[in-house]
Amino acid sequence: MRLNYILSDLGIGLKRNLSMTIAVVVTIWVSLSLFGSALLAREQVELMKGNWYDKIQISVFMCTKDSGGRGCSGAEVTAEQKNRIRQVIESNPDTAPDGVFGESKKEAFTQFKKLYKDSPIVSTVTEDQMQESFRVKLRDPQRYQNLVSAVAGLPGVDTVQDLRQYLDPLFKALEGLQFGAYIAAALLLIAALMQISNTIRLAAYARRREIGIMRLVGASNFYIQLPFLLEAVLAALIGAAFACGTLWLGVYFVVMRRAQETFRVWEWVGATETFRATLIMVVVGLVLAVVPTFLTTRKYLKV
Amino acid sequence: MIRFENVSKTYEGQSKAALLNVNVEIEKGEFVFLVGTSGSGKSTFLRLVLREHRTSKGHIMVAGKDLNRLASWRIPQMRRQIGTVFQDFRLLPNKTVAENVAFALQVIGKPRSHIRKTVPEVLELVGLEGKQDRLPDELSGGEQQRVAIARAFVNRPMILIADEPTGNLDPATSEGIMKLLDRINRTGTTVVMATHDVSIVNQMRKRVIELENGHVVRDESRGVYGYQH
Fold first, then answer.
1. Which of A131, A164, A197 is the last residue of a domain?
2. pLDDT for A54-95, tens place per residue?
3. Under 8 Å between Cβ of A29 and A242
4. Which of A50, A52, A53, B40 is disulfide-compatible with B36, CB 3.0–4.6 A?
């Protein structure tokens, strides 16, 4: 196979279809950026759900000497109080069997350090300031009122939180965004598909003499398809590269520089998740280029 | 080299057959004229040999291979054994003479050293030495057809198919082209040429196959064009 011939052909093809190629690049760029954002939004929801969300619904935080809850008397919760609280939770009919998990100060501190890992706060907080808690799984997540009122106000209980009450609206919003991004990405990807097949049709028409002679002298189908394939792959790769760059910039400026500083309560997507998303984007971009090219060239370059 | 066995061809959407029950055998090294009026089936005959279409009925053997049984990915390999020349030359206008000929070798992946050696040889054979850097529209019609023949022959095919190669040329130029085709035939290449040119057929005294309405109506070993109209 003659590489320099193929490459010069590729250059001629790209120049001839420059405006169409740019259109393909831009469409792939925007659609893959949206697609990548949707992937990251999903990762973000997973991270926010964290270790607890799928397992527990209610968190019962217990008193420290600084907490001012109804059941606190300015002192640490005692072992006796803890046992009593646990008993009340376990005996409640709405609590799932084996549905009570205790989180010690140490575990709470480990989690805290993970969330605030690059913040100066970590050095000022000690393990002792962490709150112990019981995390409770319900038989039916909708029926939490009974347990909340049974536990709230018990001696040693600071606050009772229904996790889902806080997180569900947020997740709904994120999932909505993600859904919208997927739809927009899908529509744009369809547009990219059609643009690619249109570009190839034009290119095949512009090169019909060459193609006619190639077929006549017995050039293999793959050899005839190759310049078209390379053109499409190159356009897709450029578009995908722009999209990956856009995603990295977005993650860097929006998440790493802003959100992560402001909302430290949970983990945020970072380099690992972004890298994973960009890999998927490149693969999708390539599939997007190769599949319609094969289909269209088969149609227009039939032997 | 080429054998038609009960070949019929009806194009899609047409009721009349373009070829009907054609039985022809062309031996290796033969020179055959295919004559007949327009629409008699000459072009269909040639296209079937090139496997541009499939037969509707019957079998065509080319170089021992049944074209109906040839997988579509093997068609390019088969076509490398066949050179083709047309009335309208079909040269690439933005390539020089040498590049046009070299193109046929490049696209089937021949090494550059082979191309550098073969192209000047074949240009000399067709009488175009010294014109390798001209563009097609700087050449006369006869010269353009010589380029096309050089391109068809550069890969040393077993068969050369010529579809009215002199159709656009004046008689004197046509004679030169026929001498060239004759020379190529003498190297052992089978030549099948469709033509309307009465004087050429009568002069050459080669085998003549006449088609009429898709039937073979005459097959003479040292024939003339036929009944003068």
1. A164
2. 666 788 888 887 777 777 777 778 888 888 888 888 888 888
3. yes
4. B40
Domain count across chain A: 2
Q: Which of chain B's residues have a Cβ under 8 Å away from the Cβ of A216?
A: 50, 79, 84, 90
Q: Among A120, A144, A164, which residue terminates a domain?
A: A164
- Which pair of structure tokens corresponds to residue A83? 């046992």
Q: Does B217 touch chain A (CB under 8 A)?
A: no
- Bridge partner list, A182: none
User: Is B76 at the interface with chain A, CB within 8 A?
Assistant: yes
Q: Among A42-46, A280-284, B67-71, B88-92, where is mean pLDDT lowest?
A: A42-46
* Alpha carbon distance A199, B129 (integer Å): 40
Q: Compare CB distances from B109 to A1, A209, A215 and report the shortest one's residue.
A: A1
**Are A113 and A148 in the same domain?**
yes
Kindly write down the DSSP assignment for every residue of B71-99, as one continuous string: -GGGHHHHHTTEEEEETT----TTS-HHH
Cross-chain Cβ contact A213/B72 below 8 Å: no
Chain A environment of B80 (Cβ under 8 Å): 217-218
B112 contacts A216? CB cut-off 8 A: no
Task: Write the residue in A210, A217, A224 that is nearest to B80 by C-beta.
Answer: A217
Quote the domain boundaries for residue A148.
58-164
Least Cα separation, residue A211 to chain B (angstroms):
10
In this structure, the answer to whether residues A208 and A130 fall within a common structural domain is no
